[in-house]
Amino acid sequence: MSLIVQKYGGTSMGSVERIQNVARRVAKWHAAGHQVVVVPSAMSGETNRLLGLAKEISPQPDSRELDMLASTGEQASSSLLAMALMSQGVPARSYAGWQVPVRTDSSFTKARIKSIDDARIRGDLDSGRVVIVTGFQGIDDDGNITTLGRGGSDTSAVAVAAAMGAAECLIFTDVDGVYTTDPRVVPEARRMAVISFEEMMEMASLGSKVLQIRSVEFAGKYRVPVRVLSSLTDPLIPLEEEMTSGTLITFEEDQKMEAAVVSGIAFSRDEAKVTLLAVPDTPGVAYSILGPVAAANIDVDMILQNQSVQGTTDFSFTVNRNDFARTLDLLNNQIGPAVGAGQIVSDDKVCKVSIVGIGMRSHVGVASLMFRTLSEEGINIQMISTSEIKTSVIINDKYMELAVRALHKAFGLDTESGQAANP
Ligand code: ADP
Ligand code: ASP
Ligand code: MG
């Protein structure tokens, strides 16, 4: 008998029939003698619907109230799942984040989990119940409901698994694992049976929405075995088959296929670029620009400063598209005048495309194949950033899918033999 945490995403919870199927799958694990904690997302489309209502009321709604609103989606799906389980004869009880409690900081709409009290959950498990904990939400020290950022139910699930020392955290979703890239963009993408923790971190942080980045961080910090698998298979497939399906995030690097240098392509459309032209090239300028941006709680991603010509230089950086309006406002009204920038230009029609692979550490020529491939497609690279195991470029977002498909092919990811031979 093991303690298993199972997370079901929005599509998996998307209708009454799907919720009943989730209940059948959970009932199968329960009947096999496992203790099961389920973490559901809101039914698909529900979080967007709620946030859309808020936007109709106000262009910039209050973030505390946004969390009050958005958290209701998970409360509804959790109670429906509890009812579905009970109607199938399985004792079950659902809890909202505040009832557990899942304690977070007070950063509304992007709160971080600080601790989870598992006493109530354990009590129910020990009395034979399936426990359902709402994904995506928690409570801060002042008793306010918080949410964990889009895709945050993944993080709720891994955090519950970490807090309870679960044997495995199963992330059930609408694809049957982690692919070489998003299979919706490249139909030839292939599922990986295992992916290293480091590669999964990069893929998630560079935009692969299959897992929220913080869930991967939690998995790494607490060594939680995480498996991504499909919720759309027959719910009654044998447990042994289910337990070896999908993609396992592995902490053992040597389990990785040896030869593949690039193992995945990630992309993100959530990007925006701003440039201050002709700022003085003097000590302290980067700080004068980025200090107020950080103080406004805006995350900066890529930064590019050119060599100075006649004592001035151009300074560009990228931010999440959600923060674009606020960033521009800050630059135009505060930072630009303060540093004496010549002009401020901006572009929110950019995207980031990245190649990822732990094999890149020991191979040269990987980035140059990326640049050649993009040039052959006539795609202009606006910014580049590299780390040990990834190279990212910023390009015009109308070329995003073309770039992803071309790179997927160029690195041989369409076939197993092609991938093994990539440079
Ligand atoms: P859920 O609602 O279950 O959390 P998400 O939509 O958040 O599901 O994540 C699953 C989706 O992630 C898939 O439908 C797929 O389009 C997308 N995705 C992006 N990159 C990848 C990848 N590398 N492998 C698999 N899926 C990916
Ligand atoms: N329902 C939330 C969202 O749509 C959380 C999640 O699905 O993980 O972002
Ligand atoms: Mg998700």
Automatic annotation (TrEMBL):
Q: Which residues bind substrate?
A: T47, E74
Coiled-coil region? none
Stretches assigned to the ACT domain: 274-346, 355-423
**What pathway is this protein said to act in by its record?**
Amino-acid biosynthesis; L-lysine biosynthesis via DAP pathway; (S)-tetrahydrodipicolinate from L-aspartate: step 1/4; Amino-acid biosynthesis; L-methionine biosynthesis via de novo pathway; L-homoserine from L-aspartate: step 1/3; Amino-acid biosynthesis; L-threonine biosynthesis; L-threonine from L-aspartate: step 1/5
Q: Where does ATP bind?
A: K7, Y8, G9, G10, T173, D174, Y179, R184, K209, V210
Which parts of the chain span the membrane according to its record? none
Q: What is its EC number?
A: 2.7.2.4
Q: What GO molecular function terms would the record report?
A: aspartate kinase activity; ATP binding
**Top enzyme class of this protein?**
transferase
Superkingdom, natural source = Bacteria
Q: Which family does it belong to?
A: Belongs to the aspartokinase family.
What is the designated name of this protein?
Aspartokinase
Single GO cellular component term: cytosol
Which keywords label this protein? Amino-acid biosynthesis, ATP-binding, Kinase, Lysine biosynthesis, Nucleotide-binding, Transferase
Reactions catalysed according to its record: L-aspartate + ATP = 4-phospho-L-aspartate + ADP
Q: Give the InterPro entries listed for this entry.
A: AceGlu_kinase-like_sf, ACT-like_dom_sf, ACT_Aspartokinase, ACT_dom, AKii-LysC-BS, Asp/Glu/Uridylate_kinase, Asp_kin_monofn, Asp_kinase
Pfam families membership:
AA_kinase, ACT, ACT_9
BP term (GO), one: homoserine biosynthetic process
